Amino acid sequence: MLDNGQTDIEALENLFPPASGVAFSDARSNVLASGQSVLQSEDGVIYEVAPDGSRKEVKKIDPPVNVVSGQRIKLL
């Protein structure tokens, strides 16, 4: 157990969100640098983003759902 009352597992779990954000950002940058496009969702639309920054609409999707940590959502 750590001094502040957190367990070792809780401390590791708290490191995951920022680490995954960095990993995702690096992976996206690497793909674009290799000359390939990435898919990105924004405001209910999926876009194909090219290395030059141009975007092409691929598909409209349902808008994102805001959730609170620990909230359960039933998918139909």
Secondary-structure blueprint:
Blueprint: H1 8-33, E1 38-42, E2 45-49, E3 55-60
Antiparallel strand pairs: 1-2, 2-3
Could you walk me through the main structural features you see in this protein, from its secondary elements to its overall organization?
The structure is a single chain. With 76 residues, the chain is α+β, with helices and mostly antiparallel strands. It has a domain at 8-60. 34% of the residues lie in helices and 21% in strands. The chain contains 1 helix and 3 strands, in the order H-E-E-E. The protein has one helix spanning 8-33; strands spanning 38-42, 45-49, 55-60. Strands 1-2-3 form a 3-stranded antiparallel β-sheet. Strand 2 and strand 3 (55-60) form a beta hairpin. 0% of the residues are buried.
The amount of helix comes to 25-40%
Mean pLDDT: 89
Question: How big is the Rg?
Answer: 18 Å
Structural class: alpha+beta
Distance between the termini: 40 Å
Strand content: 15-25%
What is the succession of H and E elements?
HEEE
What would the principal axes of the Cα set say about the shape? flat
Summed up, the helix count is 1
